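agent> Task received from the user: take the single chain below, predict its 3D structure, and emit structure tokens. No templates, no multimer pairing.
agent> Plan: (1) validate residues, (2) run structure prediction, (3) serialize to tokens, (4) report one or two observations.
agent> Step 1 OK, no nonstandard residues flagged.
tool_call: predict_structure(input=
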Amino acid sequence: MRTGFIFLLISVAVSGVCHGGELRKNFYKKSCPLAEEIIRIMTWNRVASNVALPAKLLRMHFHDCFVRGCDASILLDRVGTDQAEKDARPNLSLSGYDEINDIKSKLEQACPGVVSCADILALAARDAVSFPSRTPLWDVLTGRRDGNVSLASEVNGNIPSPFSDFSTLKQLFVKKGLNVNDLVALSGAHTIGFAHCGTFSRRLYNFTGKGDADPSLNATYIQSLKAQCPNPANAQTTVEMDPQSSGSFDSSYFNILVQNKGLFQSDAALLTDRASSKTVQQLRKPRAFLDEFGKSMKKMAAIGVLTGKAGEIRKQCGVVN
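)
tool_result: status=success, residues=321
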């Protein structure tokens, strides 16, 4: 797996139950004082001309952390015929790689070999989502190092699926050291961004294999979605995940969820468990959502991190040194 890594650390990186390591605020204060400012300014400049970028970078950060931990393995390109994480089916629709690579290039000019791609991704995701308010919505600890391995074969079974039921989601999050509250809070990220019709069309047209719709989905919403996503689904068509405020990072997701307008089966699943459903109600309050989301992001961003002398600081995010 990672050169020179003992079995204990290998198991931690894969299971993702170790949180924090040696991460801390302002890790680059002495080694690259302008690092976080460079990341923030470049990210904000990109978001100003691409309103879809916050959701894209946030999703990429999620997908990175849920496989091998937050080690920027999602950014690595395939080597030869060995497919990398980004080549796995759940990751084929990810984007934002160019933005991360551009930031890395700028940082390499300012501070060669200092700032990790893993930290860049964590900070850029936060800064992109925070752009409208120009105020960081959650704290990002830094000090991550980059992994050396990226395998498409490790993606399935680690990335939450839009088709998952509650039990599957809970087991997956627990495996990463996250609890039900984290599951619900992080699902709130669906308040921004778009989804391809294929990720939910079965709920509209063939839920049980008999040409029926998912009875847990709001009937009026079903008709609206059918108008946007005719059967069979067009692979290029996308719809808002939060039809009321897909461009605003707020608690609206939880309001539509209790109206049975959660787009994915995994969204609707949050209402099928008593504890989860209770948390959904609590996070309908804007301040409560932002507070809990920030806490859960801090936990998620520390899954299986490499620190100290583990891993490396890549010179380019797409290839190992």
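agent> Step 4: summary for the user.
The beta strands are 194-196, 238-240.
agent> Done.
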